[in-house]
Amino acid sequence: MDDNPRVLVVDAFSARGECLAGELVRAGIRAVWACAPPVGDVGVDVVLVDVAHPSCVSIARWGRSGTAAVLVVGAMGHPGVLSEALASGAAGFVSVDEPPERLADAVREVSRRGTLGGHRLTRRQAQVLALMATGLANREIAGRLGIRPHTVKNHVQSILGKLGVASRAAAAAALSGAVGGHARS
Description:
The protein is α/β, with parallel strands linked by helices and about 180 residues long. It folds into two domains: about 5-115, 3-Layer(aba) Sandwich (Rossmann fold), CATH 3.40.50; about 125-175, Arc Repressor Mutant, subunit A (Orthogonal Bundle). It is built from eight helices and five strands. It has helices at about 15-25, 55-65, 80-90, 100-115, 125-135, 140-145, 150-165, 170-175, and strands at about 5-10, 30-35, 45-50, 70-75, 90-95. A five-stranded parallel sheet has the order 2-1-3-4-5, sandwiched between helices. Helix 2 links the parallel strand 3 and strand 4 (about 70-75). Helix 3 packs antiparallel against helix 5 (about 125-135) and helix 6 crosses helix 7.
């Protein structure tokens, strides 16, 4: 992979998909837009999919095949879909509020490393992180997931370690794409 990856932007809304692809092209990345999910080897290095796309989770699963890394982009209003996409194989998440250069940096990192930020989270860790990002306390997360608060605490410690951050706020920022799991310049 190089610093000029081939990217497929999958977004159900043409204006937004074309805009994202255009931002990437202006950053020197070869990008095209489609509203339909990829099937088989589509000849790209990264698939950028909107978290609100109806096929977001299945596209993340498709990414496990190794044909292309899947990067989710969007707003934080979909914690359930986002946590499932991350647990299903998505390489990371970038907030739609990030500047275009950060999006391009994230795409390049995923193209090179296959992941954004630290180590991959387990399915349960991704669920806990998504709920943490909404501001819920351990006891509330435990109630939503049907697990014990102590188990949530253990997951939180593992998440912080994997993301290389020291606080819940930093982990939530990593999820939203603000730091991508590690310090950015």
